[in-house]
Structures are given as C-alpha cells and as structure tokens.
From TrEMBL:
Role played: Catalyzes the dismutation of two molecules of 6,7-dimethyl-8-ribityllumazine, resulting in the formation of riboflavin and 5-amino-6-(D-ribitylamino)uracil.
Keyword terms, alphabetized: Repeat, Riboflavin biosynthesis, Transferase
Stretches forming Lumazine-binding repeats: 1-97, 98-194
Organism listed in the record: Shewanella psychromarinicola
Cellular compartments per GO CC: cytosol
Pfam families assigned: Lum_binding (PF00677)
Listed EC numbers: 2.5.1.9
Pathway: Cofactor biosynthesis; riboflavin biosynthesis; riboflavin from 2-hydroxy-3-oxobutyl phosphate and 5-amino-6-(D-ribitylamino)uracil: step 2/2
Protein name: Riboflavin synthase
Family annotation (InterPro entries): ATP_synth_asu-like_sf (IPR023366), Lumazine-bd (IPR001783), Lumazine-bd_dom (IPR026017), Riboflavin_synthase-like_b-brl (IPR017938)
Gene Ontology MF terms in the entry: riboflavin synthase activity
C-alpha cells in the first residue's frame, strides 16, 4: 500500500524487451534504496511493481504485458522520469490518502495552463469513471495523491502548487499525455453500494 506522497522522480536508465514483459532499470538515490530488498513493492507512476534486482542504486522491475497495456508505462522511454514511492510502513506519517498501486484507467491531458498565478492541468477520462470523481475528492495521478478541482463534462481540473511540480513528473505533461489514474477505493465502494441498493429497490 502507498500514500500518494511521491518521494522522488527517477530516470529510466534502460528498458529490456522479453517475451511477455519489459524490464525497467530505474536509477534511484541511496536514500530510496536503503533497506530495499528484492521482492519489495515500489510504486512507479502509481503502479505497484516488484523489485526483481537491486544493483548499485539501480533497481529493476519486470512489467507484464497487461500492465503495459493499461498504464502509461507502456509508453515510457529511456530517459523519462518516473514518480517513485516506497511502500507504506507502519508508524509513517500519511500525508496523502491510501493507494493500492492498481491503476483503474488512463486519463488524457486535454489542456495545460501555466501562468505566473497558477499551473492547471485539465484531464479527460472515460465517462464510466466520472461516477467516482468528485469536486474536492481524492484521486491518484501518476501515483501522486491530489485533490480534484473543477469538474467538466468528461473530466476534471488539477490545480498544482510549485512543490508538487518540483517533486513529481507532472510538469512534464503536455496536451495528449497519458496519465495513470487510481480512484479512491472508499469512494468506489460507497458509490457502488448506493447504486446497488437503488437498483434493488427499483426491482422490488
């Protein structure tokens, strides 16, 4: 499990293709690799991946075809920056919200507005996921816990502060970029439960 508080953006050093998967080599800092062991879970752009090898602060992750197909890791290239978060440990401060590292869908960047006063990103998502996205609610964006801004017909706005831009790769976003989205699990449970109860009442 994760908190959505990105610890660093790390460079993709190499991507090796194999049958049914790709192996990503990520250059991390000594602080991030301290205590990290093979088999540990690490969020890469919000995707929970297993560390398969650790070598001189380079960490290797095998990414299966399904994950490549449903997340933006499938479009990742050598030299790209990846948002990294180590898994949650008991006793740690939770500054974001609980994330599982299981991406629900991809959003497309529809617009970016960067002025002296603000940095806004407008995202477009499949309409079926808008049932779980609420103004001022939580959502995981490339593994970063963020608050939903204004809702649009088929998406929502993000209003980013300089600190978020400094610590994540969201300032790399351009129109057309694909972003990993993890909706809040508690919100999904509540919405699905209410919809099921209402549907049952209509059938009764």
């Amino acid at each position: 499990m994760f908190t959505g508080i990105v610890q660093a953006t790390c460079e993709v050093v190499s991507i090796n293709n194999a049958t049914g998967l790709k192996t990503f080599e990520i250059a991390m800092t000594p602080e991030l690799t301290q205590g990290l062991v093979t088999g540990a879970s690490v969020a890469n752009n919000g995707v929970c991946l297993t560390a398969t090898k650790i070598l001189n602060d380079k960490v290797f992750f095998d990414v299966m075809e399904e994950t490549l197909a449903v997340t933006n890791l499938g479009n990742t290239n050598v030299g790209d920056r990846i948002n990294i978060e180590r898994s949650l440990t008991f006793g740690s401060e939770i500054g974001g919200h609980i994330l599982s590292g299981h991406v629900h869908t991809l959003a497309t960047v529809k617009a970016v507005s960067n002025t002296d006063e603000h940095y806004n990103i407008e995202l477009q998502v499949n309409p079926q996921w808008m049932n779980y996205i609420f103004y001022k609610g939580f959502v995981g964006i490339n593994g970063c816990s963020l608050t939903v801004g204004k809702l649009t017909d088929n998406g929502f706005m993000l209003h980013l502060i300089p600190e978020t831009l400094k610590l994540t790769n969201l300032d790399d976003c351009t129109v057309g970029s694909r972003i990993n989205i993890e909706i809040d699990s508690q919100t999904q449970v509540i919405v699905d439960t209410v919809e099921r109860i209402l549907a049952n009442k209509q059938l009764a």
